[in-house]
From TrEMBL:
Cofactor(s) this protein cannot do without: pyridoxal 5'-phosphate
Keyword Hydrolase (UniProt): no
Family note: Belongs to the TrpB family.
Protein name: Tryptophan synthase beta chain
Record has Lyase as a keyword: yes
Subunit structure: Tetramer of two alpha and two beta chains.
SUPFAM superfamilies, alphabetized: Tryptophan synthase beta subunit-like PLP-dependent enzymes (SSF53686)
Gene name tied to this protein: trpB
Native source organism of the sequence: Candidatus Odoribacter faecigallinarum
PANTHER family: TRYPTOPHAN SYNTHASE, TRYPTOPHAN SYNTHASE-RELATED
Function text: The beta subunit is responsible for the synthesis of L-tryptophan from indole and L-serine.
Length: 434
């Protein structure tokens, strides 16, 4: 039999709705709380910085939400993305397992992030907003939003953590090429930035400060809103286009995964691949395991506690009921920058607490060994974040071999690592701490 490597969908088969897992959660999560009143947060709390439609989605309990035509149209620039059977990796591992991956690295930004950047820019544009602000660490989210904002005619100001701005010029240049204004944070543009610069002029900056600057700018101008790249329900919702496609593709391959795997920062690509499959599990259609994979150095799922905590490091956001290491936790500066986040968001935390998903952690050296093996077998150089998912897929495939069982494994390749080659250089030079 001929081996089919890539399971593709036509543009006509692209999903027309996102999936909102809130509707199917067996135990409703606790509400987010307004940080001042400690009462359940209301849509009014979020409207000063987010578009109305996004706030509606944040609180929605409808299971399916239509993807606007304009968003579908832009998705078609690179979606549907391929589902690939990793035959070469299977062979290298000499495993009876079937390994599939969903390739989200094919977008303009090289990751899954445009899946939410595009609808966020769209809804803000439709509401008459002129400008968006956001923060970015390594630049993955900022670059995705830059293209989306430009497409809908919005200005975009990105506060980029100063040390990344200086040390990672390529994503900054991607953002500038797509027309965004990129400002090293802390900056003189906001009261928060000026205060920090006055106190510590040489600070390398932090994601928390960059969030505060972006939010401050959005609050102080009615024509400006803020956009966020992960953690919140509406972001996870937009990413489910990944898993909805993968579900159709697995059906075409005439297999269903026994285990679905995603790397975990704030949970958006994990939710994207996993939630549509979890619907099958929660509604009793198909039993499967779902694993979220985090860095050993930032282990909120495997070692954090479930409690109310802020979504950001400064304490501006609503309080979220979630697994957290505490919002003041400073993770080691591993190269998988997108996974250095202290909390886990509401829906994923509830699912973990109730035992519907599992969590695993991987040390940094294992992720780079994995990244190199994947590059040398499947050809794609993975983002250090995505390599966490691959590492877990390999662990599962090795276990299948030990147990002499066929098992079908699906993981999400959240992005490529072509802008992260410096990290691979450090790895080859033996300079990476585990
Ligand atoms: C941002 C990012 C992540 C982590 O964010 P999630 O919201 O957890 O998905 C993972 N992989 C890549 C390639 C990213 O850009």
């Amino acid at each position: 039999m001929e081996k089919i490597k890539k399971i593709t969908l036509s543009e006509k088969e692209m999903p027309t709705q996102w999936y909102n897992i809130t509707a199917d959660l067996p135990n409703a999560p606790l509400p987010m709380l307004n940080p001042k009143t400690k009462q359940p947060a209301t849509p009014e709390d979020l409207l000063p910085i987010f578009a109305e439609e996004l706030v509606k989605q944040e609180f929605s309990t409808s299971p399916f939400i239509d993807i606007p035509e304009e968003v579908q149209d832009l998705y078609r620039l690179w979606r549907p993305t391929p589902l690939v059977r990793a035959y070469a990796l299977e062979k290298a591992l000499d495993t009876p397992a079937h390994i599939y991956f969903k390739n989200e690295s094919t977008s303009m930004a090289g990751s899954h992030k445009p899946n939410t950047a595009i609808p966020q820019a769209y809804y803000n544009h439709r509401q008459g907003i002129r400008r968006l602000t956001t923060e970015t660490g390594g630049g993955q989210w900022g670059s995705a939003l830059s293209f989306a904002a430009k497409h809908f005619g919005l200005e975009l100001t990105v506060f980029m953590v100063r040390v990344s701005y200086e040390q990672k010029p390529y994503r900054k240049l991607m953002m500038q090429t797509w027309g965004a204004e990129v400002i090293p944070s802390p900056s003189r543009r906001t009261a928060t930035g000026r205060k920090i610069l006055h106190e510590t002029p040489d600070t390398p900056g932090s994601l928390g400060t960059a969030v505060s600057e972006a939010v401050e700018m959005a609050i102080s101008d009615p024509g400006t809103n803020y956009a966020i790249g992960s953690v919140m329900n509406h972001v996870l919702l937009h990413q489910t286009v990944i898993g909805e496609e993968a579900l159709k593709q697995m059906e075409k391959a005439e297999e269903m995964p026994d285990v679905v795997i995603g790397c975990f920062g704030g949970g958006s690509n994990f939710a994207g691949i996993a939630f549509p499959f979890l619907r099958q599990k929660l509604t009793g259609k198909h039993n499967l395991r779902v694993v979220a994979v985090e860095p050993l150095s930032c282990p909120k799922l495997t070692q954090g506690t479930f409690r109310y905590d802020f979504g950001d490091t400064v304490g501006l956001t609503p309080l979220l009921p979630m697994y957290t290491l505490g919002h003041t936790f400073t993770p080691a500066s591993i190269h998988a920058g997108g996974l250095r986040y202290h909390g886990a968001g509401i829906a994923t935390s509830q699912l973990l607490k109730d035992g519907y998903i599992e969590a695993a952690s991987v040390p940094q050296t294992e992720t780079f060994q994995t990244g190199v093996l994947f590059a040398r077998t499947e050809g794609i150089i993975p983002a250090p974040e995505s390599a966490h998912a691959i590492a877990q897929a390999i662990r599962e495939a090795k276990r299948a071999k030990e147990e002499g069982k066929q098992r079908t494994i699906l993981f999400n390749l959240s992005g490529h690592g072509l802008v992260d080659l410096y990290a691979y250089e450090q790895y080859f030079a033996g300079k990476l701490p585990s």
